[in-house]
Amino acid sequence: MAEFDFDAVVVGAGCVGLATGYALGKRGLSVAVLEKEAAIGQGVSSRNSEVIHGGLYYPTGSLKARLCVQGRRALYAFCDAHHVDYDRCGKLVVATAPDEVERLEAILEQARINDVEGMEQFTAAQAIAMEPELACYGALWSPQSGVLDSHGYMLALEGEIGAHGGAVVTSTPFEGASPLEGGGFSVRAGGEEPATLSCRYLVTAPGLFAQEAAATIEGFPKAEIPKAFYGKGIYFRLMGKAPFARLVYPPPIHGALGTHYRRDLGGQAVFGPNLFWVDELDYSVDPSARAAFTAYIRKFWPAVPEEHLSPDYAGIRPKLHGPEDPQPDWRIDDASAHGLPGLVALFGIESPGLTSSLALGEKITTRLEL
Fold it and tell me: Would you give the DSSP letter of residue 255?
């Protein structure tokens, strides 16, 4: 058998790339995770809501539905074992208008199909008894939802990769790969000390740069690289006491779960993200969006003081659909899609990717037939 520098190279040190490195390392493989930024988790993984999703909404049998539930169960256990902070605070999905009550019933049915534990339907009075400042016409209760310290989680994954003999190498961009005769890949890594690495298995999980990475792999059919779309969302933070202890979500909008509320682990209230479509990776936050945020928040928290909402941060989601298109499932493309044995290329891993990351790592190992 050919000698390789590493059994596996993973591109991207966000939560999914790190969880994949962890899953491969647990199986006794030597792993190198390449990250172009100077630190782990600087892309999609650090610009989200840090929510642990229950798995309510996703279509029956989809990767999102199955891996969200599996990943969420694994994530709480991992956090307990590695002393990662989280708050299993639960989530209220609220009807903000009478005609949304029927939508809650459909979400409840989907959640039960998806095997989400503990779901209940509440009257408005029951929900308001839990959260007295809330305004709604009814709600769903998801006790398994929560928030976590996503950076602490990724540091724990990085530690596990090291403990299993692997390495996470930052400031090292992936510049391409070529298949080797007899199997495996030659991987070109850039940075201050460019290098060429050989590996048996290659996994690309670079989030917003998934299409760009696939295009640099020799023999990857261009027709199998999906078009990339960018869905941007911004967040506002409340200066003052957080109004709710639990997550509060209106029903989803097309293409996203919509602007919601969370109390972060520091006790502050954060609202967002909204969704709009951009052509470039721009993380600026427009303060003039505050009025629209306030109007939306007032649907479920009428007392929101607009002057206490402060622009916070922005995130961009790697989407596989445009504004008017149906929202597709994630893509976990193995050799059956692109014809390159030993390669798994991920596309469109947006929410609930953080929640699902441990299950995604396990799924990737099965796609590599390990």
Answer: T
At 241 the three-state DSSP class reads coil
Is the backbone peptide bond immediately before 352 cis, with ω within 30 degrees of 0? yes
Cβ-count burial of 297 within 10 angstroms (0-12 exposed, 13-18 middle, 19+ buried)?
Answer: buried
- What sign has the CA pseudo-torsion 20, 25, 31, 35? positive
Q: Which residue type sits at 25? A: G
Strands, sheet with 51-52, edge to edge from the N-terminal-most edge strand? 51-52, 146-148, 86-87
Can you tell me which residue has the tokens 């610009």?
Answer: 47
Q: How far is CA 186 from the centre of its chain?
A: 29
> pLDDT tens digit string along 204-246?
999 999 999 999 999 999 999 999 999 999 999 999 999 999 9
CA 198 – CA 180 distance, rounded (Å): 9
For the cut 90, the answer to whether the pLDDT of residue 137 exceeds it is yes
- Buried residues in 318-330 as b, exposed as e (16+ CB within 10 A): bbbbeeeeebeeb
Contact criterion met (CB below 8 Å) for 257 and 249: yes
* Residues facing 122 on adjacent strands: 139
Angle between helices 353-367 and 63-82 (to 10 degrees): 100
